[in-house]
Amino acid sequence: MSDASICFIGGGNMATSLIGGLIASGRAASDITVSEPDEGRRRVLTERFGVHGVTDNTAATAAVMVLAVKPQVLGAVCREIGPGLARRSPLVISIAAGVRVDSIARWLGFDAAIIRAMPNTPALLGCGASGLFANRHVTSAQRDQGESVLRAVGLTQWVQEEAQLDAVTAVSGSGPAYFLMLMEAMAEAGVNMGLAPATARLLVMETAFGAAKMAMESAETPAELRARVTSPGGTTQAALHHLEEGGFRQLVGEALERARSRAATLADEQEAG
Fold first, then answer.
1. Which CATH superfamily, name and number, covers 6-167?
2. Is residue 171 within 8 Å of 44, Cβ to Cβ?
3. According to the model, what pLDDT value does residue 172 have?
4. Where are the domain boundaries for CATH 1.10.3730.10 in the chain?
């Protein structure tokens, strides 16, 4: 078993993105196996990327095992593959939302080296943001292995406490929807002010892209950039002042806290299941 070998249990959208990102970054297709029961899905992956495809989870062997199945079936999958993994002690990476490391270890049945990852949907386009947490059994070399897998689809950030992944979920996991909702509202406002729907939509999308690019490429903070583009007494200041008067910052903070709290509750429910 090569140290570079990776096996994906599950061949859904996120697994597909990770496989594509790994191959694009130079990982050999011969090092990658995907275990996927759906014949059509498995054939797409093997033909598109040249990876190995199998149907039996217990037959999959690799130095890195990526659990890319739905949270509600993760327990059953872990119990199925646990005995075989215990004999090889690979690194286990879970991208199942809301399932804690202790639950995964309990289902596997041994003290596994586990990294729990929280990617977001832009990872499907190679520009994701993933929070990572490693349990105490993960070595320094395995941390590098795990990070290299998620880095194939975007930025990675480690957290020191697993509970912080609930905050990651609130900020970046659910975050794309917040920006999309703002874009939706801005486009609607543009239409209400007389713009054609297609025009309003394109203006909003390009503006959102440009603002994100400014923030990513500048050494200044978003607050500093915002201040620099806000002329005293101008149109931007008028709009921002109205948002502030309406409690915009407080509302955003409360919304993210709701998301964080819900993430913790879902994790508790998975743990009890």
1. NAD(P)-binding Rossmann-like Domain (3.40.50.720)
2. no
3. 96
4. 175-263
